[in-house]
Design brief:
Layout (H helix, E strand, L loop, with lengths): L1 H25 L7 E6 L6 E2 L4 E3 L4 E7 L5 E8 L3 E6 L16 E4 L2 E2 L2 E2 L2 E2 L5 E8 L4 H6 L4 E2 L33 H12 L5 E2 L1 E2 L6 E10 L9
C-alpha cells in the first residue's frame, strides 16, 4: 500500500508534465497565465529546472502564455546583485509593451528584428515572474527605483545592470538586502519550495487577479585544475 501511495503521485506528475508540454509546444492559450524559463539563444532550447547549476552568462528567455492580455513583471534577486528589473525595462533594447498580448509572447522580446536574451549572473539567483489582470500598483511604484537588466542578441557574459529609467537614483533592491516588495518576496518564497519552474502560475495569497512563479538557479562550480 505504501509503495502504491508513492507511485500514484509520480504518475500524476508525469501526466501533468506531458499535458503541459504538449500545450506549451502547440502554443495553446491558457485561462491561467503560464510561464516557461527557456535556456538557449536560438529556436532550440531546454526548460530550466529548480536548482539548475548554470555558468554565468547562460542565455535564457521567458515564454509567457495567457488567454487574455496580462501585465507581466519579471525581476531577479541575488545576494551579490540585489534586485534587478528584467521586464518591463523602458529605454533598453528589446521589450514587449504592457499588457503582454495573448496567446503567447517571448521576453525580453525583439529589437531590430532580432530576438534578444537575458543572461544569468554569477551568484545564486531567484528569478520571479508576476502576471496580473491589470497594473499592480505595488510594483509600478517600485520599478522606477530598480536597476534594469540589459538584454543582448547573444549572451556570452552577463552585461552589467543599467541605472533606473529617467535618471532616477537607485532607491531599492540594494546588494545584500531583501526583496523590496512583499509581493515579490511571496513569489520568491514560493520558488524556494516548488518542484516545478514551468507551467501555470500560482495565484498570489494576498492580491486577487495576480499570479506568481519563480525559478532558482545556482552558479556552476569551476572545474578543478588539471591533474587533480
Amino acid at each position: 500500500m505504501e509503495r502504491r501511495a508513492l507511485v500514484l503521485p509520480a504518475v500524476a506528475a508525469v501526466a501533468f508534465a506531458a499535458f503541459w508540454w504538449s500545450n506549451h509546444r502547440a502554443g495553446a492559450p491558457t485561462a491561467i497565465p503560464a510561464a516557461s524559463w527557456c535556456l538557449g539563444a536560438g529556436p532550440g532550447y531546454t526548460l530550466g529546472r529548480p536548482g539548475d547549476e548554470l555558468a554565468a552568462g547562460t542565455p535564457f528567455r521567458l515564454r509567457v502564455q495567457c488567454g487574455e492580455p496580462r501585465h507581466v513583471y519579471v525581476v531577479r534577486h541575488g545576494d551579490v546583485d540585489g534586485t534587478v528589473l528584467l521586464h518591463p525595462a523602458p529605454g533598453l533594447p528589446g521589450g514587449v509593451d504592457q499588457p503582454v498580448p495573448p496567446p503567447a509572447a517571448w521576453l525580453p522580446g525583439p529589437s531590430n528584428d532580432v530576438d534578444r536574451v537575458w543572461a544569468t549572473p554569477a551568484d545564486a539567483t531567484t528569478f520571479v515572474v508576476v502576471a496580473a489582470a491589470g497594473p499592480v500598483a505595488e510594483l509600478d511604484v517600485l520599478l522606477p527605483k530598480l536597476r534594469r537588466a540589459r538584454s543582448a542578441a547573444t549572451a556570452d557574459v552577463p552585461p552589467p545592470a543599467a541605472a533606473p529609467a529617467d535618471g532616477v537614483a537607485v532607491a531599492a533592491g540594494a546588494s545584500g538586502g531583501p526583496l523590496p516588495s512583499p509581493l515579490l518576496q511571496r513569489a520568491a518564497d514560493l520558488a524556494r519550495t516548488t518542484t516545478m519552474s514551468n507551467g501555470p502560475l500560482t495565484p498570489d495569497t494576498v492580491l486577487a487577479g495576480v499570479w506568481v512563479g519563480g525559478w532558482r538557479v545556482k552558479p556552476k562550480a569551476a572545474p578543478p585544475p588539471a591533474g587533480r
